[in-house]
Amino acid sequence: MKVNYIHKLDNMKYISKEKLEKLKEVSKKYKFRSNEYYLSLIDWKDENDPIRKIIIPQYSELDEWGIEDASKEYSYTISKGLQHKYKDTVLLLINDLCGGFCRFCFRKRLFINIGDEVTRDITTDLRYIEENKEITNVLLTGGDPLLLSTKKLNDIIKKLRDIDHIKIIRIGTKLPAFYPFRIIEDETLHSLIQNYSTPEKRLYFMLHINHPNEITHYTIKSIDILLKNGAQVVNQTPILKGINDDVKTLKKLFQKLSYIGVPPYYVFQNRPVMGNKPFALEVEKGYINFLKALEEISGLAKRPKFVMSHETGKIEISGITKDKIMFKYHRANKEENKNKFMIYKRNPRAFWFDDYEYLLEEYKY
């Protein structure tokens, strides 16, 4: 199935001309991109349709809120396209395009400052990975790596597989939701997975499915192909106000993912990034809804951890009482934070870890 990408809001015939003119102001700052398949999932009669909110600009994106790089990724960037935050894991940013531009993207700076952080040549990055033998995991991200040609993707993965200490290669992608035919119809991609996802060294696909409505027949078929060809598949999503933050929707998402063999992996507190105000949900409200969504589902569906991808590491929200909230470092990039457990006074208005001021207790376990 041929993909027709859409970059202009003028093509949105279900939106009034008056509203489109206002939304064009948003797309001048935060670009719009989608395709006919993904837009076909929208119920245009419903102003609050979740797919619509994921992909169609909202005027409130222009409200002053957040910063460009909330997790300060620049602070652990080694060379262009290469981030090394945790000892055993590096990120390779190899593309600055996605199947569509999610309105809540935490890396929307990549689509504003084209080419500033993404690498087209991984030679320098490969040398660094070869020299640092503690690195066992490489995450290919961006942008969406599956928008590269299979030939280009194969070249990158082959070079990584030639480094003996690289045991896991991860590919972050939303294409099973945005455009599953990229996976369904490309048999050379199937062969790539068979070649490089071996019993000793697996390829992992880190999916970004945010709402149950994205899990269509074609999405399921694309995921089945990944699994049958030997890949491991998991899912992660931010919690998003008005899209998946209610208990019923989160529960349904976790369940549907477990039914099709995709373990829910992380639920992220949405980062306080510029333009993200319409999707921002308070930490404690999100965490309580997350806990309620886990109450009556199977253990296979209740595996995700609720975390913040903070500049200092992945901080897991691990408990809440009437007046206290508990955090622990799920991953930390500094030795003094590893295994640290922290108890803070609750702050119902907090959107991020930095909003918590009153530390009551901390210790390492």
UniProtKB/TrEMBL annotation:
MF annotations from Gene Ontology: 4 iron, 4 sulfur cluster binding; catalytic activity; metal ion binding
Names of required cofactors: pyridoxal 5'-phosphate
Binding site for [4Fe-4S] cluster: C98, C102, C105
Location of the Radical SAM core domain: 84-303
Keywords: 4Fe-4S, Iron, Iron-sulfur, Metal-binding, Pyridoxal phosphate, S-adenosyl-L-methionine
InterPro entries linked to this entry: Aldolase_TIM, Lys_aminomutase/Glu_NH3_mut, rSAM, rSAM_sf
Cross-referenced PROSITE patterns: RADICAL_SAM (PS51918)
Transmembrane regions: none
UniProt xrefs under SUPFAM superfamilies: Radical SAM enzymes
Entry superkingdom: Bacteria
Stated name of the protein: L-lysine 2,3-aminomutase
